[in-house]
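Batch manifest, entry 17 of 40.
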Amino acid sequence: MADTIQREVQNFANKLREVIESYGEEVLVKHKVTKIVVENGEVKGIKVGNNIYKSSIVVANANAKTVLLELIDRKNLNEKFINYIKSLKMSP
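Output type: structure tokens
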């Protein structure tokens, strides 16, 4: 069962990559994102090491707590929303 789920998740990721690339866009894999760049409430790209990759759309495969509490600067989020995200129970 777990193998089937993992295979289907990978199939979804592969199809998503195909669609994005069919529009001439780039998909970065095996890159550790250190920051999602947000300016004036809008995503502007990602930071990987010392490099900034500009983009108006970011698809993250990390959990909500990692994305919203670690990768996005908290000044870009409402305190009530931050507290809600902190309260979420993560799956085992």
